[in-house]
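During the no-cost extension, the postdoctoral fellow (Dr. R.K.) reprocessed legacy sequence entries with the updated structure-token encoder. One reprocessed record is reproduced below for audit purposes.
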Amino acid sequence: MEEKAARAYDQAALKYWGPSTHINFPLENYQNQLEEMKNMTRQEYVAHLRRKSSGFSRGASMYRGVTRHHQHGRWQARIGRVAGNKDLYLGTF
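Re-encoded structure tokens follow.
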């Protein structure tokens, strides 16, 4: 799992800062990903990485801003980047 996280970091770093940035593994390991990321914005590529993470599937909803809360399987709503805050909690339903 630690290696997967390191590879996700490398891919995001390559997308944000380019191939001259310091990464954990050799650049040659990411040739397919470099081609893939050419067709995506930074935000799209980060979303792509998140979808591949093991944490994404836990509590995932088909709706934006909705996640399964850890208590009693209820759903939690949040909206991001509101009035300078990281996110705004809207409630548990």
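The beta strands are 66-68, 75-80, 87-92. The radius of gyration is 16 Å. The remaining legacy entries will be reprocessed before the final report is submitted.
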